[in-house]
Specification:
Elements lengths: L32 H10 L6 H20 L3 H14 L1
Helix pairs in contact: 2-3
């Protein structure tokens, strides 16, 4: 609770950074097209985003491979290939 006794939310995984980094985990958020349309209506896509989005996702896929192994390695390789081709 806050100092005034009101309920509050504590997020132990807060992040301060560029808004585009949110897209790195969008593959496991399961948001539909309407959500992302709404998002883009508020925060337009910056030039070069499509290339950076690959890098943001790659970061998380490599982390998941490090933690869990499995198919995350092939996902990471696919993203590396796309990044190098972009």
């Amino acid at each position: 609770a806050s100092s005034g006794g009101e309920p509050c939310i504590f997020d132990p995984a807060t992040y301060y950074g560029h808004h585009e980094a949110e897209w790195g985990m969008s593959w496991c958020a399961s948001f539909g097209g309407k959500f992302w349309e709404g998002y883009r209506s508020l925060i337009p896509k910056d030039p070069g985003f499509d290339k950076r989005a690959i890098l943001y996702e790659l970061y998380h896929k490599l982390n998941h491979y490090n933690l869990f192994g499995g198919g995350y390695m092939s996902d990471s390789q696919r993203l590396l290939d796309r990044l190098l081709a972009a």
